[in-house]
Structure of Amidohydrolase:
Amino acid sequence: MRSAKLSLVQFQSILYDLDKNIEKAISYIDKAKEKHADLVIFPELFLSGYNPDMVSQQYFDYAININENSRLLSTFKNKAKENSINLIVPLSTYKALPGVIYNSAIVIDRNGEVIGCYDKTHLWAGERNHFRHGDDYPVFDLDIGRVGIMICYDGGFPEVSRNLALAGAELILCPSAFPIQDKDMWDIYFKARALENTCFTIGVNRVGEEGSIHLFGNNKVVNPRGEVLLDAPIDAEDMQLVEVDLNSIKKYRKDIPFLRDRKIAYSL
């Protein structure tokens, strides 16, 4: 069994207080280490808060370049190395042009090295006023297996997870800031994406209220057959640990040969 122990954090952000959010995040990493987790996944924009009408300046103030050793990035790199644990850290980033920012998820390995970054490709509503969209679907090689990332609204587009699956992703992770009025969609996304790509799919959602936005948690882990392995509590700040068997993907893909049997229509 090639297992991976995943630690999913339903994080409640403290608006306008970066240091408190970092402190809380570190405490969750320490707890995950105590539970012998391999990977900790935080939700979308968990350090700044999400609501564009309330925290837009923090998107820019907290944005980092993954190629520069900022205090913020160094904190998570050092914590990953100290605890020998992989991290998914979603926050705003910039590239060569400061002030042009992306809604991103940074991947840090057990050695404290940044191995890459995914930039959200499908921006929702007011996000478009602040972020530039990404244009790539990278897959990251961690010691537990191959990991793909999509962020929140990306999960509604089958092309995103399909590209990740075809690139070899075994785990597709979806850090999110998903509102309660769309919970019916949340309940569909991960079952559908997992089954059609026969891989493990994980949704990690924020908790709390930011103005008119009610973020409800309810983390999900779904196996390659679309069966829900975790359906976490609603409206509770919490962390769950779920172990998945990545070797089982081969059997699922033999029994459910969607990827083998897919046809590409070159003309309509």
